[in-house]
Amino acid sequence: MRTRRTFLLAVFTLFIQITTTAALRAEDKLPAQLSDEEFWKLSSEFSEQDGTFRSDNLLSNENYFQFVIPPLLELSKTGNVYMGVGPEQNFTYIAALKPKMVFLIDIRRGNLDLQLVYKALFEMSGNRAEFVAKLFARKQPSSIGASSSVQQIFDAVSNAPSNDELYAENLQAIKDHLMKKHGFPLSPLDLEGIDWVYSNFHRYGTRINYGSSGRGGFGNGVTYADLMVATDEQGVFRSYLASEENFNVLKSLEQKNLIVPVVGNFAGRKAIRSVGKYLQEKQGLVAAFYLSNVEQYLRQDGIWDDFCHNVATLPLDDGSTFIRSERGARYGLGSGLNSDLGNMASEVKTCGPEK
């Protein structure tokens, strides 16, 4: 009897070891780092033609986007792949989920240019205080540093004077970092887009809001500073600039070229499906996909099913979660856009026939 138990225990132990090794091997197929050439190739080859939206979306106008993080962390696994649309609100979700890799897909090439500006600034900045000062082209006040609270950082930078000379110097440093250090072949249109992005952050400073650029957007008066010093429903600071730990999650991913911006229509046939094919090959899983309120426009145009079929090509598990913004959603206090969550795997089963 003892011999049989010993044999069964040995078999069980071997099974666990093989299963664990296989799981680790599968996880290890996601890259620990991308070369500059690999990063640019993924971004370029996965991208579709530049599209349009009614506004520039240089920042979010979603007041309560942090409220959804506690329930999100109960559903989604950390260490997988994050997908999202739009600007900086993604960074806060990324800081919470700590993914191995990120794909940010937006119909506007202007968002890719915005993400490249962020990439350069994350890599060029040693801490949050330096990053915020560079982002808004202000001289870093001596009163703030790595140990400062997010409120202290934004109070100090908000009161720092605008500096045209520093703006021009930083803008050139951003371009040099992207083109000379990384060797990215930025087009004249991308360089123009980077100029446009950074000029708005310089002009409006920490008080920039969704409608500041004047290109079709309308805001609710919520500024960049407001979004960064906001909390979740329990009063916990969760923005990507709330702590050095959160900031460094983003900085590390950017340094490893693992936040890949892609130009694509959610209902298009290329961008999401290209990410899906890549992740299937790497045996990666999507932890979460932040949608903002894009589904509203997809449904208005009668193309939500096309998006649904695209999502169905992604590798999902029972923890893969949509993060969406909707009126009257569960997480938030306002009458505008609040946040909600949805199970990706179950929702894509509702797709109609693929055309």
Describe the protein.
This protein is α/β, with parallel strands linked by helices and 355 residues long. It has one domain (43-350). It is built from 15 helices and six strands. The chain has a six-stranded mixed beta sheet, with helices on both faces. Helix 4 (89-97) links the parallel strand 1 (81-84) and strand 2. Helix 4 crosses helix 11 (244-255) and helix 6 (128-135) packs parallel to helix 7 (150-158).
The proportion of residues forming helix, as a percent range, comes to 40-55%
Strand coverage percent: 5-15%
**What is the average of the pLDDT values?**
90
Count up the helices.
15
* Regions with little confidence, pLDDT below 50 for 5+ residues: 6-26
Order of helices and strands: HHHEHEHHHHHHHEHEHHEEH
Largest sheet: 6 strands, mixed
Overall geometric form: globular
Gyration radius (Cα, Å) is: 21 Å
Terminal-residue CA separation: 62 Å
Oligomerization: single chain
The total beta strand count reads: 6
Task: Kindly give the count of domains.
Answer: 1
Trace the largest sheet across and list its strands.
3-2-1-4-5-6
Briefly note the structural class of the backbone.
alpha/beta
